[in-house]
Amino acid sequence: MKVMVQAESISKLMQYQLHERVYPSWVFDESTLLIIDANQSAQDFCNYEGNELIGLSITELWKDEDLSDIIHDLEMHSSERSFYGNLKHTKKNGDEVIMRVRATRQLNPKTLWEVHLV
């Protein structure tokens, strides 16, 4: 079941920068693992339309075998500002691709991570 979320916790500058990027990027909340904003490139890459990515859990995009690694990385890097890794990514149509992911903890609020597929 998809949960709708608000992007109120993202600053206008962060939101502008996110939507200006040409590579797929989104922001998720560490405590809920829900995507709270995504740029058009991410929507296109993942085969989602409109704002369908918003409100999805990152667990719906990344394979189960990688999920424990993601959670572990979040815990390991809780005092860090970023982590990198290769993850199996599932698109809306079910296609799986291995992507290099870079996630950066935002400074304000510190529960948000910005993800870039590189």
Description:
The structure is a single chain. It is built from three helices and five strands. It has a five-stranded antiparallel sheet with strand order 2-1-5-4-3. It has one domain: PAS domain (Beta-Lactamase), CATH 3.30.450. The longest helix has 13 residues. The chain is of the alpha+beta class and 118 residues long. The radius of gyration is 13 Å and the shape is globular. The N terminus is likely disordered. A hairpin with a 5-residue loop joins strand 3 and strand 4.
Spell out the key features of this protein.
single chain; 118 residues; Beta-Lactamase; five-stranded antiparallel sheet; disordered N terminus
Short note summarizing the structure:
It is built from three helices and five strands, in the order αββααβββ. With 118 residues, the protein is α+β, with helices and mostly antiparallel strands.
Strand-helix topology:
Elements: H1 12-20, E1 25-29, E2 35-38, H2 40-45, H3 64-76, E3 82-90, E4 96-105, E5 112-117
Antiparallel strand pairs: 1-2, 1-5, 3-4, 4-5
